[in-house]
User: Which sequence fits this backbone?
């Protein structure tokens, strides 16, 4: 589900960075409040564990294929959602830098799609709610599967919205969603089963390691706020999805443009008068991202031909300069040695 | 080579590459991070049909691969995962958008073909830019740059800790899965009956290790933060490097450089 840079435009990437940064800022505050000196090393090691454990192939019975752990839910069940969220950010950043798994600019999207839903929705809304009256084997299985399925569904939906909002694919929304959701339902079920198996083992061997949110429950204020918090998380998720949807919608004629088109036959008014012409010239000069289409040319083929010739010339010149630079650099280094 | 061994090999390679004494490695990490982010953002901002404008962005990776003496072969290998995802999402474009934009001889070029090609090129450029950053800058230096950009200490410390223990955990996973496969040689992957015990054991050991790591770090004076050494002595060179690249990249984004040179030549 790691999104590549090419699948999002800067506006969507920036929005998701802001949303993820806000969640990260709040998590940092909460982890600091815990004031547990062991927390950071534990988070570091657990991050490395999730990274390594995701490389293990767990065979799915009767299919011949394999599945992996769900990092966000597993970490939330051990470290708690705030620490888990920060750990997942570290894992996603390293995956992006070292293995090109997800893009650097799309990191905000990936944090939101995988870490936010996995840790906050999976950890707070499902895991904590199910475990608040005590932990049992059945509850671990139910919570793990439910959390993995729901968070993967939300993540897959967000990928769809972010890609469509960026205008990357021509696929209609319904087909794209119809493709993404069922695939991730199957993945969620498998990941949930694997995660529950691991958590069941931990519960049997070291039950004190399982996070239930009980610590917060003892603090009356925290417990009273818990429902509010969950609604805040849902609200934030809804706001970001709605923001993404509105961006997607804005790539199509909006209500005003539609009305103008019905009246005039075009989505824009014809320019008339010296002031209009002057202002349009200024707009054309300053517009960094003009409407789609080829710039500065009426004939696309003609433009392409001159572009290819120009491109070949620029690249050739560039290569020449680079090799000259390298030659003198090496000469200089040899002289120094 | 197994997937885990390949990952270990990849990390070692990146570490060694980042430690090399190349001019690109000596540039301040903050300058490289800024240029990389600017480059990727500008690549992403190109309209889906502006192939020629986007093609001009090849100059940045081209120049750095040659002058920085970075092998492009490994960068191409990194593309396989990203290109698969991009192909899955972009494959519908040529089918759904059949509006002919221009002809190359008798071959019609549709909007969908162009947008699909643009998508692939954008992915390649973005991966190359990230690759060039990581082969010339260690994770420690990237964290140092991010700290300069006011990333919270807790996050940079966490990233460094995860990174330091990844190889250790990967090696442990490799030993564990190898021991398992030696016991059941005909089986592919881990049987469902062993899912919990295998990964669960690993998790418990990790928790115990975290305790030991914390104790040893405390004994060495750890107080919740790694102190990163300053990187890139030639500050002025780095400032010039970042400014020049930003100017060049913005020029490429605003002006159709290839077409302009082509018009002069034809």
Assistant:
């Amino acid at each position: 589900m790691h999104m590549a840079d090419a699948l999002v435009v800067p506006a969507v990437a920036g929005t998701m960075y802001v949303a993820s940064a806000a969640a990260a800022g709040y998590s940092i505050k909460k982890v600091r409040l815990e004031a547990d000196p062991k927390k950071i090393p534990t988070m570091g090691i657990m991050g490395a564990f999730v990274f390594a454990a995701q490389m293990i192939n767990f065979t799915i019975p009767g299919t011949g294929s394999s599945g992996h752990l769900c990092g966000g839910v597993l970490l939330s069940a051990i470290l708690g959602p705030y620490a888990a969220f920060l750990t997942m950010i570290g894992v996603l950043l390293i995956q992006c830098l070292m293995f090109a798994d997800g893009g650097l600019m799309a990191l905000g999207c990936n944090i939101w799609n995988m870490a936010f839903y996995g840790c906050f929705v999976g950890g707070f809304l499902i895991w904590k709610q199910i475990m608040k009256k005590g932990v049992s084997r059945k509850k671990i299985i139910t919570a793990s599967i439910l959390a993995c399925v729901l968070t993967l569904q939300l993540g897959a939906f967000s990928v769809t919205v972010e890609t469509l909002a960026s205008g990357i694919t021509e696929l209609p929304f319904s087909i794209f969603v119809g493709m993404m959701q069922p695939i991730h339902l199957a993945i969620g079920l498998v990941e949930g089963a694997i995660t529950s198996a691991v958590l069941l083992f931990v519960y049997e061997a070291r039950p004190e390691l399982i996070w239930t949110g009980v610590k917060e429950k003892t603090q009356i204020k925290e417990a009273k706020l818990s429902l509010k918090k969950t609604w805040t998380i849902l609200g934030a998720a809804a706001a970001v999805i709605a923001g993404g949807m509105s961006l997607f919608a804005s790539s199509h004629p909006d209500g005003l443009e539609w009305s103008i088109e019905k009246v005039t036959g075009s989505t824009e008014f014809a320019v008339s008068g010296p002031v209009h012409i002057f202002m349009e010239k200024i707009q054309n000069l300053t517009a960094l991202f003009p409407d789609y289409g080829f710039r500065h040319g009426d004939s696309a083929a003609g433009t392409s031909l001159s572009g290819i010739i120009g491109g070949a010339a620029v690249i050739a010149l560039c290569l020449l300069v680079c090799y000259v630079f390298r030659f003198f650099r090496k000469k200089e280094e040899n002289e120094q040695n | 080579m197994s997937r885990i061994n390949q990952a270990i090999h990849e990390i070692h390679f990146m570490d060694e590459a980042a430690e090399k004494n190349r001019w690109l490695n000596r540039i301040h990490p903050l300058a490289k991070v800024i240029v990389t982010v600017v480059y990727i953002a500008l690549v992403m901002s190109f309209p889906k049909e502006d192939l020629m404008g986007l093609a001009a962005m090849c100059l940045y990776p081209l120049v750095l691969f040659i002058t920085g003496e970075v092998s492009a072969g490994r960068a191409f290998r990194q593309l396989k995962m990203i290109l698969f995802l991009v192909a899955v999402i972009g494959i519908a474009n040529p089918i759904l958008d059949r509006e002919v934009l221009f002809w190359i001889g008798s071959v019609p070029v549709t909007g969908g073909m162009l947008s699909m090609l643009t998508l692939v090129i954008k992915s390649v450029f973005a991966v190359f830019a990230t690759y060039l950053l990581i082969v010339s800058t260690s994770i420690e230096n990237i964290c140092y740059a991010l700290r300069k950009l006011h990333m919270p200490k807790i996050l940079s410390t966490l990233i460094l800790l995860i990174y330091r223990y990844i190889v250790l955990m990967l090696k442990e996973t490799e030993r564990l899965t190898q021991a398992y496969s030696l016991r059941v040689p005909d089986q592919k992957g881990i049987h469902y009956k062993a899912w919990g015990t295998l990964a669960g054991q690993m998790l418990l050991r990790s928790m115990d290790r975290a305790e030991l790591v914390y104790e040893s770090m405390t004994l060495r004076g750890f107080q919740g933060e790694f102190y990163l050494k300053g990187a890139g002595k030639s500050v002025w060179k780095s400032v010039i490097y970042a400014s020049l690249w930003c100017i060049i990249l913005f020029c490429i984004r605003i002006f159709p450089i290839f077409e302009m040179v082509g018009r002069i030549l034809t």
Summary: The longest strand of chain A covers residues 58-59. Chain A touches chain B through 104 residues (CB under 8 Å).
